[in-house]
Amino acid sequence: MTKAQKKEYHRVGHITFRTSCGPTHGITFALLAGDPKTPNFEKALFSGHVERGMATELRRLAGHFDELEAKLPRSDPAEQAPVSADQGALAV
Is 52 among the domain residues? Predict the structure, then answer.
C-alpha cells in the first residue's frame, strides 16, 4: 500500500500555490489560477520540483512585495491588519 500524497494550498492574490509531498513524485509545487471552487482549478499553469534555494528566492520576492505594498494608499483599516503565517493556508 502506498502512502497518500500530502497537499497544501496557499493563496496569493488570484494565484494559488499547491505543494505536494509524496513517495512517487517527491516534493513538488504547482501554480494554479483562480478560486478552488471554480471548474478546472486543479489544472496547473506551471509545476516543478522544489529545489534548494527556492525559499530564499521567495523571501526576496516577498520583500519586494512589502516595498510595493508600502507605496499603496491606506484607505481601509482592514488593509493595515497584519496577516499571520498560518492565515495563508487554504483548506481545500
Answer: yes
Evaluate whether residue 92 is within a structural domain. no
Cα separation, 15 vs 21, whole angstroms: 20
Counting the structural domains of the chain, the total is 1
26: alpha, beta or left? (left if phi > 0; alpha if psi -120 to 50): left
Give the predicted TM-score (pTM) of the model. Answer: 0.70
37-91 confidence digits (pLDDT tens) = 777 787 899 999 999 999 999 999 999 999 999 999 987 666 555 554 455 566 5
CB atoms within 10 A of CB 56: 9
